Amino acid sequence: MTTDDAVREAVRERYTAAALRVLESERTSCCDTACCAEQALYPSDEVEDLPATAVRASLGCGNPTALIEVQPGETILDLGSGGGLDVLLSARRVGPTGKAYGVDMTDAMLDLARRNAAQAGATNVEFLKGTIEAIPLPDASVDVVISNCVINLSTDKAAVLREAFRVLRPGGRFAVSDIVVQGRPFGPLTAEALALWSSCVTGALLDEEYRRLLAAAGFVDIAIEETADYGQAHGLALEPGQRLISAFVRARKPL
Fold first, then answer.
1. What gap in Å lies between CA 147 and CA 86, rounded to an integer?
2. Residue 34 has pLDDT above 50, yes or no
3. φ, ψ for residue 44 (rounded to 5)?
4. Per-residue CA distances from 85 to 54, 88, 134, 208 (Å)
5. Are 182 and 206 in contact (CB under 8 A)?
6. What is the number of domains present in the chain?
7. Which conformational region is residue 95 in: left (phi greater than 0), alpha (psi within -120 to 50 degrees), or beta?
8. Among 11-15, 74-78, 152-156, the range of highest mean pLDDT
9. What b/e sequence results for 208-218 when a residue is b if at least 16 CB atoms lie within 10 Å of its CB, and e otherwise?
10. Per-residue pLDDT averaged across 94-116, rounded?
């Protein structure tokens, strides 16, 4: 197994287990602590009428649906859509003439997302199986690409950003929440680092590298805005001068 395969399998196993815990918590009316902590990222009035399992399956580091204004009739794509919370919120914003896609590689999460969409009565959503390095959508097919703490999990972030650029229409917007490292990169991928990668830590890009890869993919108007000190909040032991932050990352595909 290659290093990339090992990372992907570790991520798949972690998020399969998360989906199964959410389903189990529904049966016991109990919520996993990590999942519950993320609910504070979304105003209660936004999620109160959505399936509880969609909210509990939110394992992100931000609220990408709050990042950018969307218009009725637009098409939105969520990279690594998990239990479907951000897709359902986006579908509501674009209305019945719009469309919200989610792409995920984990069968358990896709099953959970489709179940949540059916329970919510959302008819303008579609969940696709695939990887964010090879998005199963045609060129220039979406207006907005969002993601919530998923791009850091990829081992080929340049490919992810190229794919995001490819599927966006001219003038389309890239607006994601992600984990970003500042100061110095993480070291070689050890067994311990592999476990931390699937926990959204050691796969994080340096902020300047994130900017460089976005520009190389063709994006303009690139901005990275810190929203929280992720390392401090999670009690992570980092190298001197190294910071791990939650951030809003924005960019645009030129007209």
1. 8
2. no
3. -60, -35
4. 5, 5, 22, 30
5. yes
6. 1
7. left
8. 74-78
9. eebbebbeebe
10. 96
Q: Which residue has the tokens 């990352």?
A: 249
Comparing C-alpha atoms, which of 8, 6, 28, 32 is closest to residue 19? 32
Q: Domain holding 55: CATH number?
A: 3.40.50.150
Contact of 110 with 78, CB cutoff 8 Å? no
Report the first-to-last Cα separation within the chain, whole angstroms. 42
- Over 80: is that where the pLDDT of 1 sits? no
Q: Please give the single-letter amino acid code of residue 123.
A: T
Q: Which of 246, 250, 241, 183 is nearest to 40 (CA)?
A: 246
Range of the domain at 217: 3-252
Selection from 14-18, 73-77, 228-232 with the highest mean pLDDT: 73-77
The tokens describing 20, both together, are: 């199964």
Going by pLDDT thresholds of 50, 70 and 90, the confidence category of residue 238 is confident
The number of beta carbons lying within 10 Å of the beta carbon of residue 205 is: 23
- DSSP states of the chain: --HHHHHHHHHHHHHHHHHHHHHHHHHHT---HHHHHHGGGS-HHHHTTS-HHHHHT---SS-GGGSS---TT-EEEEES-TTSHHHHHHHHHH-TTSEEEEEES-HHHHHHHHHHHHHHT--SEEEEE-BTTB-SS-TT-EEEEEEES-GGG-S-HHHHHHHHHHHEEEEEEEEEEEEEEESS---S--HHHHHHHTTTSTTPEEHHHHHHHHHHHT-EEEEEEEEE-HHHHTT----TT-EEEEEEEEEE---
Query: What is the share, in percent, of the chain residues with pLDDT greater than 70?
Result: 89
